[in-house]
Design goal:
With 139 residues, the protein is mainly alpha-helical. The protein is 65% helix and 4% strand. It contains seven helices and two strands; from the N terminus they run E-H-E-H-H-H-H-H-H. It has helices at 7-10, 32-48, 52-65, 70-82, 86-99, 104-120, 124-134; strands spanning 2-4, 17-19. Helix 4 packs antiparallel against helix 5 (86-99). The N and C termini lie far apart (46 Å).
Length: 139
């Protein structure tokens, strides 16, 4: 059974159907991996063709399927940085760091996004310090 959910309730597009389980809870489709990969390919194509807003939308859809997948949040942070949405880039990079667990490579990349955003905000000292620490950090 499908019910319409509000964007405020689910953080999703209000036009998107959300599957509802027997207890009235939203359920995830069994195979989100293939859908996520397809969305990431579409995002990459959109970004390459200069349609950055569309690229972001595809990654956001992938995140709705897999909200705890840190590398998706990292991709979103990178896309927001490319759009010069510096606060968004920092916010999504911090979300990556919170979810990355033992994936130090993702943590490092997220910190590099933060450093680039800080640099573009005019805070070169903070950017330099972040880069100094995270370029060679091994855990």
């Amino acid at each position: 059974m499908y019910e319409r959910s509000s964007a405020a309730d689910q953080g999703a597009d209000p036009q998107q159907d959300v599957p509802i389980g027997p207890a009235g809870e939203a359920t995830k489709p069994a195979d989100t991996h293939s859908a996520t990969l397809a969305l990431l390919k579409q995002s990459k194509r959109a970004h390459a063709s200069g349609n950055h807003i569309e690229a972001i939308a595809y990654v956001e859809r992938a995140i709705r399927l897999n909200p705890r997948q840190a590398d998706l949040w990292l991709k979103l942070a990178e896309l927001h940085l490319a759009q010069r949405d510096l606060e968004g880039a920092i916010q999504y990079a911090n979300k990556t760091i919170a979810l990355a667990g033992s994936r130090i490579d993702w943590v490092r990349q997220a910190w590099m996004v933060i450093a680039d955003a800080k640099d573009q905000q005019g805070n070169a000292a903070a950017a330099t310090e972040i880069r100094r620490k995270w370029r060679t950090y091994r855990g």
